Amino acid sequence: xxxxxxxxxxxxxxxxxxxxxxxxxxxxxxxxxxxxxxxxxxxxxxxxxxxxxxxxxxxxxxxxxxxxxxxxxxxxxxxxxxxxxxxxxxxxxxxxxxxxxxxxxxxxxxxxxxxxxxxxxxxxxxxxxxxxxxxxxxxxxxxxxxxxxxxxxxxxxxxxxxxxxxxxxxxxxxxxxxxxxxxxxxxxxxxxxxxxxxxxxxxxxxxxxxxxxxxxxxxxxxxxxxxxxxxxxxxxxxxxxxxxxxxxxxxxx
Length: 253
Known about the structure:
Elements: E1 2-15, E2 19-26, E3 30-36, E4 55-63, E5 66-76, H1 79-82, H2 85-101, H3 109-123, H4 129-143, E6 163-166, E7 171-174, E8 186-188, H5 191-202, H6 215-233, H7 238-251
Parallel strand pairs: 3-5
Antiparallel strand pairs: 1-2, 1-4, 2-3, 4-5, 6-7, 6-8
């Protein structure tokens, strides 16, 4: 049976001499494993669409719950992202997270849109990488059932004057209530970083990147989003390690 869908390649693995096995995040059916026969062969019509982080209109052939890529027409190749090693490594981190948190054969259009919009923000809009990374991490966690409780202090209920995010419990608390907020590390926030986190976790997905932070507020937003994600998922990511290595090398005098 043939079917059409739009999909983004999250992973490509070479198999045999001319074929690839793709992990594709589709708009209609979530994450699929797709065989791209002949995709490595020179002149193949599948060459472009079977590359990492390429978004395409795909015609898939399904037989006994297995999918193969029959035809594809590229929609977006994200050339600006792919031509910059830092942006490409960050987008690869996004892809690794999306692969982990997407379900097989279950539509997750919100996650697909988040990945696409984040790469657009990096490449076309030239938003700061630190901002895009933090927005992606926090929004993805919220979409995947790990949304932190940020309305008020989880202990006393008041708006915190000195806000903290307990990254293990996933709750906001004020400095005075730290001991009652539960086990785990608490990341310090301020007015700007807390407002950003609320906007990303609860706000309009079409306006995720329509704000700007700088200085200490940006650093606290970025640190809290990353540590919250890593703590909740209880694991690290090789793509994140590589991206951080690139950034640290760039920042060295």
